[in-house]
Amino acid sequence: MSLEQRAAELDEARRLRIIKSDSIDVEKYLHSNDVTIKVKQARDFLDDIKESYLSTARDTKIVLPWSKTHDSFAFRPGEVTVYAGSNGGGKSLLTGQIALHLVKQNQKVCIASFEMKPVKTIERMLRQFAGEYVDDPLSADREGYITKLLARLDKYTADSLYFYDQQGTTSPDKVIAMARYCAVELGVQHIFIDSLMKCVKNEDDFNGQKGFIDELTALARDHNVHIHLVHHIRKQASDEVTPNKNDLKGSGSISDQVDNVFLVWRNKKKENQRNRGETVDESQGDTFLMNEKQRNGEAQEWYQLWYHQASQQFVESAGSRPQDFDNNGRFRD
After folding, report:
1. What is the pLDDT of residues 133-183, one digit of tens each?
2. How far apart are CA 103 and CA 158, in angstroms?
3. Hey, which CATH number is domain 3-31+61-315, 3.80.30.20, 3.40.50.300, 3.40.50.720, 3.10.20.30?
4. What is the pTM for the complete model shown?
5. Residue 155: enclosing H or E segment and its boundaries?
6. What share of the chain is helix, strand, coil (3-state, %, to 5)?
7. How does strand 260-266 pair with strand 226-232?
């Protein structure tokens, strides 16, 4: 039995929380609280300011999966992060791995992919969760092994991972309502939206894009959640050209309004050299995660990552082993 079939069983059994699009009252969750309750005196913020100062030293940072990034970047509540790249550049794989790592940090996560059914997303995340042990060469009972693996994933995610079941083009109102529902009703702290082009239909609808991003940033601030938004870049003159934040499709206000911008760029020059049978410099990463904007942080760094094909994980150095999310090795018990 394939991983995809097993993932389908997992979906059907609803062992991972699936949120149906028609289960959310859009009108109820579309708008934020009445503006009159937002007018406050300065003294109303004193406790929040005190807590902010104290939490800086006390709270554990919420970080990316790769240790090389921990000193220069962290996810902060109330922010929006954009991950932009070309088609097939690995954006969804990378954000799936980030979502699994957020769960490891005791964060609640919802993934709303309008380009991929939950069952397919789960299948890919299952491979990443299994790491180098996605296949067990010592066991003839592959079905039993996959069953154990799925049980581990179920235990690992518990009530911390949700999927919004809606594919194809949607509307900004539905996405905003979904995100607010997740924050208010489920206590979700991280919401992944894949992708912007499925939420605002026309690439040249700059006002629509600006309005949608404005709503997302306000929602993140109002509910103290972090929103992760996948986006696309314009087609470059060559797939070997390194993009920058000015290459995001659509309105320039996208990068202006959000808090953090990452570009996900496959090192196509290295891939092309390998395909031509040329000598390849393996010290060069397979993928670059380029931080082009960090409003509330000091660093804007580029991180080289290497692709581990069997697990579909990105690792932080050439030859590194994939991340073991639940520290359980071969899922034997």
Report:
1. 777 655 567 778 778 888 888 889 988 999 999 998 899 999 999 999 999
2. 9
3. 3.40.50.300
4. 0.90
5. helix 142-157
6. 40, 20, 40
7. unpaired
